[in-house]
Amino acid sequence: MSRNGDVNQPTREFPEYPADSASTDPAPAARPVAEPDGPDDAGRRGPARGLLLVLGAAALVVVVLLGTQVTGLWPSWRNPFAQETTDRSQPPLLKSIRDLSRYVAAEGNFQVVVDLETDRKYVPDFLLNERTLFVGAGRVEAYVDFSKIAEGAVVESADGKSVEITLPAPQMSDTNLDIEKSYVFAEKRGLLNRLGDVFADDPNRQREVYRLAEERITAAARDSELAARAEANTRKMLEGLLRSLGYQTVTVTYTKP
To answer: Is 100 helix (H, G, I), strand (E, B) or coil?
Structure first.
């Protein structure tokens, strides 16, 4: 309020308070004063902070590495040194289609051990020698080719109760070598052979053992009872089929191979 008692005049100065009124206020609470760090405290905190920084950096590296290894943890993080495989194979090419009219009546699974050695006369084995022990596993099928049934091979009786069928002899398929079950058991090579591989590696070096394994499996299949088993199974199949059609007697014979 103004001193001249005019209430419409704006206040031009703050009212004065008595000097002893400040003594009536409560004393403000005392604030602790932070004391400056001494030289001993600074010396202890310096290595501690450095150790914490090193541990934090190591933990970050571990987390990043784990994130790249754990699937689904951080999908967006990838290891820049991760191994990648690129398939640049060409699409398959269809070369031919063949209608099959063969009845696979039996199948044989064979295993053979090929011991192939190549050396030179008057040359020590430790210098020039190749010996491979190969375990080959293959499959051979025995089948009857119905497309080779000659005219007049099926003869029916007058009363329609019996039938005679003459079939071609069972044949053997080519040996199908199973790569997953075949393996090189042992291999011994001379010093000069190994040195030659450094300059000119031969990717077809094991083709010979594969060829020998296929030939021996094919020979073993021919000497086995696979053909006889195919004849019996084919005969049994035709007898059941023709008897279901009303024939009481079914006779199946085979021509000579």
So the answer is: coil
Tens-place pLDDT, residues 142-170: 999 998 888 889 999 989 899 999 999 99
Counting beta carbons within 10 angstroms of the beta carbon of residue 254, is it exposed (0 to 12), middle (13 to 18) or buried (19 or more)?
A: middle
Give every CB contact of residue 174 below 8 A, 6+ residues apart in sequence: 140, 214, 218
User: pLDDT tens digits, residue range 17-51?
Assistant: 454 544 444 444 445 444 555 555 555 556 677 77
Helix (H) or strand (E) holding 164: strand 162-167
The closest alpha carbon to 133, from 111, 119, 117, 118, belongs to: 117
192 within 8 A of 127, measured Cβ to Cβ: yes
254: β partners: 167
Radius of gyration for the chain, computed over Cα atoms and rounded to the nearest angstrom: 48
Every domain of the chain and the residues it spans = 102-254
Query: Rounded distance, CA 175 to CA 48, Å?
Result: 74
The one-character DSSP state at 160 is S
> Per the structure block, which two tokens stand in for 124?
């020590």
Q: Is the dihedral of CA 92, 95, 99, 100 positive or negative?
A: negative
Query: CB–CB of 254/169 below 8 Å?
Result: yes
Query: Token digits for 210?
Result: 């594969």
Tokens 């990043």 correspond to 64
Element at 137 (helix H, strand E): strand 129-145
